[in-house]
Amino acid sequence: MSSPHGGEAKMPDSEWSPFGPYAHELASHAGELYRILRAPRGEVPMTANGEPTWTEGDQDAFGVYCDFRAVLGDLNTAEGVYELLETVDRFHAALPFSEGERRWLIDTKRTISRAERTEVLVGMEAIITSNGLRQVVRGGELVRRWSAFRHSTDEFARLGTVEEARHHARDIALRIQPHMPFPDDETTSSTPAS
Prior knowledge:
Layout: H1 23-36, H2 56-72, H3 81-94, H4 99-110, H5 117-122, E1 125-130, E2 133-138, H6 139-150, H7 161-176
Helix pairs in contact: 1-2, 1-7, 3-7
């Protein structure tokens, strides 16, 4: 596209990003993660059989996270990308999974229908390599941990890690789209330093 003044015209900010054509989609997913990670405090939901499960909100939040991860690899190298990726690393560090667990959970999620996702996940296990060690991952534990994280209960009670993850998700979105609107009340939450 050429400019009336000659040369190549730059697309408007709503369409163009130095991080590439998928950057705005990544910002949108990060903004949605900021909004959806918060859950009412409370116990981890359980099935009638006493197994951990996910609320609709837990499933939605994990789905948005998977969408975020899918677009993350499509970023272009541009000025500021290293700072952006450092913020992504801090976001991941606040989540309740190791990199190996996240990868296994995302890959496994792709093979299971949404309707049966948590019930099937709860019964699955695998051996993965993470941080140079082989370990057994159990789907039921990862389902419980995600829910406990979102609901700030069990080992995540009073840690503020869900708020920390939300803070980093917001920062990711704003690094890509500096004028992305966020509700005013969200800017006043306190977040532990990382």
